[in-house]
Amino acid sequence: MTKIKRTISAILLVTFLVSSSILAQTRIVAPKNPYKIADDVKLGQEASNEAENKLPLIKDRQLGDYLVRVGERLVDAIPPEYQHSEFRFSFKLVDAKEINAFALPGGFTYVNRGLIEVAKTEGELAGVMAHEISHVALRHGTAQAAKAQKYAIGATAGQILGAIVGGGLGSVIAGGSQLGIGAYFLKFSREYETQADLLGAQIMAQAGYDPRDLGNMFRTIEKESKGKSGPEFLSSHPNPSNRYEAINREAQLLKIRNSDQNNQEFSRMQARLGGLPVNTVNTRSENANSGNANSGNTGTGSRPTTGKNPITSRAPGSRVALPSPRYKTYSDNSFQLQIPENWRELKDQNSITFAPEGAYGQVSQRFVFTHGVLVGAARINQDSNLRQATEDFIRGLQEGNPNLRQQGQYQRTSLANHKAFVAYFTNISDVTGRTENVAIYTLRLNNGDLFYLIPVTPQSEASSYQRAFQRILSSIEISD
Ligand SMILES: [Zn+2]
After folding, report:
1. Least C-beta-crowded within 10 Å: which of 1, 113, 197, 208?
2. 319 C-alpha to center of ligand 1: Å?
3. Which tens digits make up the pLDDT trace of 106-122?
């Protein structure tokens, strides 16, 4: 009885809050976060060092100063409760044509040239930046990390990023993004995206921009990227037009302060950017030749082919050869297994993917694969049992991959002479748009880490891969 009463008053309370919010801008509450603000900065700094090793930056002084001016105008407009003196906002221009921007915890913000090129006004550019700044202000990166990995306070970026494969599972499962920093900090839940949209709109109004420009930018992006594999700020939303409407609703509640939109300067900067040579090393041209329907937004220009990382290859989703009936042995310090002779190993910082040619590549700055096996270890709440750790791990994956759906119950199994769990999932591939089968095997290593092995194939081809997966699973040996 008491319980019911309490529920009813809770409902009344919620209703009251909702109706009162009609009168004022939406109040945004940052998610719970056990990290210190200094941790955000430290982790973001480490990730940004890594990013800058790999991203081609545009060092033009005028463009750089301009971006910083727009960025700082927005940062000054962050509501006082989300201003933290520890934050270290910086704004850098990346020489990549993809329409994208991202911000790392602590404020390290990157804007692709492609974003400035398609924006129609400074307000549209500022809109995306305000959205990214809002993720920083609300500390979404570390809040998300904490959700997936409860123990990790004080861990290094590498450990945290390795904690789960990264929300970048996206199309299939990303072994981390091309940055090696995992889509972890970059791909957020829908709830976080909505928060960043609303706070972004509020920041814009406070900074003297029209918040509707953020909504307009979604339309522009949608048109340019034809709604598939969009950039970070489209990533978690199947329906960007909802966001457009939500932002416009919010905009009606907001008063734009000292409106000042210098589009002359913006046009000058756009022209200046147009005069700079484009970083030509990217996978786009390869994709354009592949005849793949997805090629328009596959691939990324943001990483030069340095040879440090072998992942360039063809567009994922192009024709993939069946697993060779002959096998070779892969082994490193921690484990060994047999893989079909025509598969490659693609190492990331915290995981390794075994996949055939044509089955892996970059989509929206993320490493993805459509056929193959991902193997890695994650540090997940070491006090929990295997079942709980597996559930935490999978929840972390689902956080960034709303289409990853479990089919049936967890099953006990054995892998490499360890007690293990397996669970089966379906997912919708970002690359092909088709259903894929995903199995997730987990076991505990002696050091407490969670070892995972994840076979993936398009559902329609699953039977052709059964034998190869069996062979891989039965061959695996772990030295722990
Ligand atoms: Zn976002």
Report:
1. 1
2. 33
3. 999 999 898 899 999 99
